[in-house]
Design the sequence.
């Protein structure tokens, strides 16, 4: 009978976030397939766990996967882990799981934190409907088309970003999305955890003079979910202004965005919204 493949989450910073079940499974399995064995060995040592490790990462070949699947098929139990957070979420694991599924190998999840969901929860953005966009591509063309495809996305969007690319990414986002509300979530669960809810233009200005440090998740408001039609009334346009304000824009900026979307002048919208307040 096949052994079980466990998909095990690990802390995204604070080791206190490890769970009793993660420790139990990591100690009990025959082998742990780890993205970086040095990183996982440190985690295991901290908890006095001595399970053998083998390397399984983004560039692992089909031959390596076949070897792991053969061990599972022969009855060994295995945990797959990444350096931090949930495997398979912008991390290795998905191909192994797909192929194990196809071989009818039993798979169980041992959940832990994911930076994406942790950031969303603390972002102060709309959590009702969201999409996870992972990392933007490094190539300019692919980055551009990824962002363009999201221009009219109405759900809250979650991105991962490396610190050295943050400044350019924020500029590209401002250019594509306009001045939306953004929550910049940094170093979650660590000593310097920080969540800054601001606007894209303010974020761009801030990082002109400040160097990004640490790990970042960007949580960005979607486009206000209103159909803009030729017959839009002033009242409809004001609903749009309020939606922008709820997403964190100042009244004047919200009026400017809504003016661009509706054809009403910024001044007209501004005066009308002030009358209503
Ligand atoms: N699989 C992981 C998960 O479930 O969160 C994500 C792995 S991905 C390779 C690493 C990226 O996740 C980082 O570049 C950063 O964008 C984000 N990240 C991971 N840990 C984080 C933390 N403690 N605070 C903020 N972002 C984090």
Sequence:
């Amino acid at each position: 009978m096949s052994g079980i493949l466990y998909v095990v989450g690990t802390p995204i910073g604070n080791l206190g976030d490890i769970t009793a079940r993660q420790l139990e499974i990591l100690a009990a399995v025959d082998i742990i397939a780890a993205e970086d064995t040095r990183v996982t060995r440190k985690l295991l040592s901290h908890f006095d766990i001595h399970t053998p490790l083998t390397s399984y990462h983004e560039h692992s070949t089909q031959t390596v996967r076949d070897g792991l699947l053969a061990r599972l098929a022969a009855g060994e139990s295995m945990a797959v882990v990444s350096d931090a957070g949930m495997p398979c979420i912008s991390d290795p694991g998905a191909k192994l799981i797909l192929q194990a599924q196809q071989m009818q190998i039993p798979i169980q999840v041992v959940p832990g934190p994911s930076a994406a969901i942790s950031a969303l929860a603390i972002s102060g953005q709309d959590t009702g409907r969201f999409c996870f966009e992972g990392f933007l591509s490094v190539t300019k063309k692919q980055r551009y088309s990824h962002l363009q495809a999201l221009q009219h996305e109405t759900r809250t969007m979650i991105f991962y970003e490396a610190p050295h690319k943050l400044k350019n990414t924020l500029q590209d986002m401002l250019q594509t999305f306009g001045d939306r509300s953004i929550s910049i979530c940094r170093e979650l669960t660590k000593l310097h955890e920080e969540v800054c809810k601001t606007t894209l233009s303010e974020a761009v200005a801030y990082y002109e003079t400040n160097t990004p440090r640490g790990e970042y998740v960007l949580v960005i408001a979607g486009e206000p979910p209103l159909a803009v039609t030729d017959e839009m009334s002033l009242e409809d346009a004001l609903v749009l202004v309020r939606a922008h304000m709820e997403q964190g824009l100042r009244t004047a900026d919200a009026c400017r965005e809504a003016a661009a979307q509706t054809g009403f002048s910024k001044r007209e919208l501004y005066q009308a919204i002030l009358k209503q307040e």
